[in-house]
Amino acid sequence: MRKVLAGTVSLGLGALLLLPAAGAIAAPWEAQDPRPAPSQEPSETSLRIATVDTQISREIDGQLATDLLQGDDRQAALAADNITAANADVVVLTGMDANEQAVEVFQDRYLNNPDDARADVEYDYVYLGVGSKGKPSGADLNGDRIVGGPEDAWGQADFEGQGSVVVLSKYQITPDQVTSVSEFKWDQMPESRLDDSGLSGALAASIPVMSSGLWDIPIEYRGKQVHLIAVQADDNFAGYSFAESRELDQLRVVDDYLNGKKYLRDDQSKKIDGVGNAPYIVAGALGQQPSSLTARDGLLKQINRPDAISDSGNYLVPNSAWQVLGQGHIGDREPAQAQSVDGPPQLNNPDPALIWTDVQF
User: Fold this and answer.
1) pLDDT level of residue 290 (50, 70, 90 thresholds)
2) Which residues have CB under 8 Å from 128's CB, separation 6+?
3) pTM here?
């Protein structure tokens, strides 16, 4: 039985839910042209981490689970083709509705379905990162003089958890060890860009700096605790005049978290210590817009990982404590088109590729 850990606003950080497998009630999707496997197979002495911008989302809360039960969703099938080909130990999915039932159905109908053409892969632990996505602000954030709707949420979305973060893991995730940073107020950040945002008064004092969130998920690997830093920084620039300033400060939060800056607080308002000297890997969406490249490059320089890779705004950045044994991408595009971190992110790719990296001490 899988363990679904919900680090959410509504359920509370670390709620442990035991969910039964979803029933098979429709003909499965038959995988077409399965994605090529990585050039290097997983090793018993390495840890394989992967991430992909899934684009598996719906405009109505709960609709995704219903649709996925049909077994023929194109975006879910593409993501599943890539995930099963990579067979990573941990996968960070961005842009997916953080809905318990939807993730269960995705696993049963697409990742671990004996009736389709994919190699089955089972993830016993699931973490749902909801954060600020879709949480109503009660204010007119987009300046249209109407309060309500996705652009007036703390993070643009129709409902809490829409297009957020889902982490699948073969390693145990202990909910009370996860640190979530999604509610930290922007005005509590020293030398922030809040003054450039045009926000003031109670609104400026209430808005969280993270439009989605950061989740520090410790796992045990070879007898040592390592940190998966799952991140989604994505204001999209669609409705907020302050989105650029906010996104730049979101990247600073990631950097400051890694360095244990004392001003930061988690979602229980507790001081955080960062990762210290423990090995970590940052996985997920960083720097979605060209204007954030300087801040993103500063973060990469701080981590000292010039060989990190990216695709569609998603990044895998292990710190220097790790030895990188192999890395690559799995997707529809040719490998030559996969991004390295020295170029701007390609946005709005119809079929984002999964990126993976193998690391060890």
Assistant:
1) low
2) 4, 5, 6, 7, 8, 98, 99, 100, 103, 161, 164, 165, 166
3) 0.87
